């Protein structure tokens, strides 16, 4: 059955529907934003620069996004989800009781991502600290990485201690990777992964040592038989 005339989004023009063309234009703006961030940082991402880079008008920009801030947040979420998916797949194949294998798999996967595409590394670790446009999106997505790390921390003991350990570990790794990507930490890629892996393992070991055993359950006295 042909699409209804009252539904212009489903009509085809040049072999594509309006919805399909909108999807392509949205993806084009996001790709252009990543290019600009890689070249000059988030400050270079404006509606004007995006339209100039894509050859599209601002009418099409506002068709997809309410503001540059919304675009930057969408780009950040998309990139963070890609990194998280890759890391989760990598650590899924590691031994449950081997924190070194787990940490190395996660870190090597992330480092590979940012080496293959430094723009994504800059976006994930540097730009949220330099541009308030990202709002709380970095904190929101960081919780997913924190859950990935906490999945291998010792289960026993205080939930508060576990939360503190995970937050401290996530923040420290982000700062380490950011420093390396900006050239402030002049070590090789292998040295970075080795040092970061050792740090994660030490954190896990400390968490295990400080874990408080769960309180023993009191044994119930046997009930006296009924007479």
From TrEMBL:
InterPro entries: Homeodomain-like_sf, HTH-type_Tx_Regulator, HTH_TetR
Domain HTH tetR-type: 23-83
Record-linked SUPFAM superfamilies: Homeodomain-like
Domain of life per record: Bacteria
Record keywords: DNA-binding
Feature: DNA-binding region: 46-65
Disulfide bond recorded as keyword: no
Any single Pfam family the record assigns to this protein: TetR_N
Name of the molecule in the record: TetR/AcrR family transcriptional regulator
Organism of origin: Skermania pinensis
Lineage, uppermost ranks: Bacteria, Bacillati, Actinomycetota, Actinomycetes, Mycobacteriales
